[in-house]
User: Fold this.
Amino acid sequence: MTYTYSLVGGDTNNNKVSFSTNSSLLTVNSGSGSVTVRVESPDYPTTPQEATINFAPARAGITFTNLVQTQGATFQRVYNLPSNQASLYAPGRLVITYNENVESPTQPGSYTVLVSVLGSDPDYFGSASETLTIQPSFAASFGGANPNSDTDGDGVPALLEYAFNGSTNAPDWSKLPQINLTSNTLSLTATVRTNDPTLIIEPERATNLSLGTNAWTNQGITRHDSTNTNGVPPGFQQRTYSTTVTNEVRAFLRLQVRTNSPPSP
Ligand SMILES: [Ca+2]
Assistant:
């Protein structure tokens, strides 16, 4: 059966509907308003049908992606749209803000992302919100410094300054792990960085340094994460690593710090 469509009324100037060349295929486009369409069939030539189609803007199907990104890396778009709404990617149809700023963030932290369709959009409406985290990286935070460098000459290499909330331009002795020895417990306490998953801080224990690198093991050490946030900045945590010293003549504890992040791009 063949149908023929024609527009007979309504808001026909905004291309709400379109027809194929032989007028037998009706395509519904986007927009809002209404049109009246007449449908005719040669099989029923005396009974054309008319119907009014109402168009309303559709809710944008905004979803989120790339909500954890790394400082210094190329910023990735944080939202997606369904393929049939891809026209919304065009400039000027969506407004994206990060803590109410339109510039994508470059500094480590948490940001509220709000993706909104402009209120004037003829086809879509809606908004969605999520939290974006920018994780710090040693390379970006410390300007590409060599991990072993010591530009301020305080004897603390740059990577340790990064790990223990120090800086490359101020003395950081006070931020190095503090040693404590009680009757049978040896411990190290430090404020360590926790917001960079590429930074590895690993405690090691030894009892006989004459064995060289073989002396050190990560066994027999307990980690305590303090809930004390006094003087502890966001992205850091006060931790104590302890080991029991009972039968040994002597024991040693150290923190090994390394990064597996790539160099700054
Ligand atoms: Ca320093």
